[in-house]
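Below is how a single chain appears once it has passed through the pipeline. First comes the sequence as given, then the structure the pipeline wrote out for it. We keep one example in the README because the format questions we get most often are answered faster by looking than by reading.
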Amino acid sequence: MERAADAWEHHTFKDTIVKAANLEIYYRALNFYLQEQPSLVTDLLQALTPRIDVNRVVRMFEKSDNIPLIKPFLLNVQSQNKRAVNDAINDLLIEEEDYKQLRDSVESFDNYEAVPLAQRLEKHDLVFFRQIAANIYRKNRRWDKSIALSKQDKLYKDAIETAAMSGKEEVVEELLRYFVDIGSKECYVGMLYACYDIISLPTVMEISWRHGLNDYTMPFMINYLSQQAATIVELKRDNEERKAREKEERKKEDDTGPILGQSRLMLTQGPMQTGGGPAAYGQTNGIMPQATGYAGFR
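Resulting structure:
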C-alpha cells in the first residue's frame, strides 16, 4: 500500500492480506481501496467478509458518504440481520425508489428502526412506499395508524386484513362503520367475512337495519345461524351421551350395592354366639372370669 504505484497488484494483494494476523490492516486496506481503487473495494470486501466487523465497515463508509459503493457487500451480509446493515440498505433503497426490494427487506429482516422508518415512508410521494409504512405499523401492532394510512390511499383490502389481524372488536367495528359511511357495500361484505369471528352479531344486525343492508348481510346471517344450529346439535348430542354414561354408571352402582352392603353388615355385627341361650352372668364374649382372691360382698 505504501508503494502502490510500483508494487500493487489486486489479486496478489487480495490473496496476501487475508493471511495477515493484524485485523487493523484490513481496515487500512479498505481505506486504501476507497482512495485508490474504489471500483475494486467490493471484491476486497468479499474476500475479507469472514474476518471483518461488518458494523465497523458500515460506519466507515457512512462517514465518507460512500454507502452506495458497497451495496453488493451489504446485500451479501444482510442474512446476518444486523441493524446497521439493514438500516443502510433500507436507506439506499428509499433513495433509489426501489419499493419492491425495500418491501422484501423489511419483511425478511426485522432488525431495524421500525417506527422511524415507517414515519419516513408514510410521507413519501409514491403510494407503494406508504403501503410499506402501513405494513410496518401493522407488524408493530399499531393497528389504528396502519388502517388510517390504508384508508388514506384507498387500500381497503390492506385495511381489512389489518383489522382482522388485530383481533380487536372495536377496531373492526370502526372500520365496518367507515365502509358503511362511504357507501362501499363490497368492503362491507368483505369485512363481514374477513372478521367473521371478531365482529358481534348485534352490531351487524343494527348496522344492517339502520342502513338498509339486509340483502348484503343475509349471506352472513345464514352462515352464522347455520353454524349456531350445528353447535346446538353438537351440544345436544354431547349432553345425551353424558346422560347415557351417567345412567350406565348408576346402573352399575345399583348392581354392586347389595353385596357391598352385606359385607359391611357382616363386619360390624360382632362375633356369632354358639350357645342356644344368653351368656351366663359374669361371662362375656365366651371368656371365663378370673379369681381375684377377694370375697364377694354380702
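Residues 59 and 65 are 10 Å apart (CA to CA).

See the next section for the split statistics.
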